[in-house]
Amino acid sequence: MLDPEHIVHCYKRYFNNVLIIPYELLKTDESLFWGAIAERFQVPHPEVTINHAINTSLDLKRTFLLSKTNKISSVLLNTLCDSKDYTNMQEKNQIVSNYGNSGKWVHRRFVEYAAAEQVDEMYRLLGMSKPREDFFDVKLPRV
Question: Pick from 96, 107, 111, 126: CA 20 to 30 A from residue 61's CA?
Fold first, then answer.
């Protein structure tokens, strides 16, 4: 269970101004959303209008798959970075740089745009049948 007071306390350690505002408000009343921010921080109300969804939320099945592909990507990239036997430094640096800068977006776009059958195939390849029950259990360390 999330402890909002603890989360705000953690943010306040690093930031002077913290405002808790539901993201859903942006979807339902964009003007009120920006107005609340403008009023709280004494800044002009933005003339922003969002006409289409940007980076929409993924469903649980796709979010879990994304977490696994990102983990695999991290292991692959760290393997290359840490390898003492990979001596072609020009190639190694190019691969690490290019993949490190775009690797996670490739996974995000795959799980976002893949057909349901393709997502199911990835689950089978990774030996998974469904997301873990505790996938969204988040524990923040107490300070």
Answer: 96
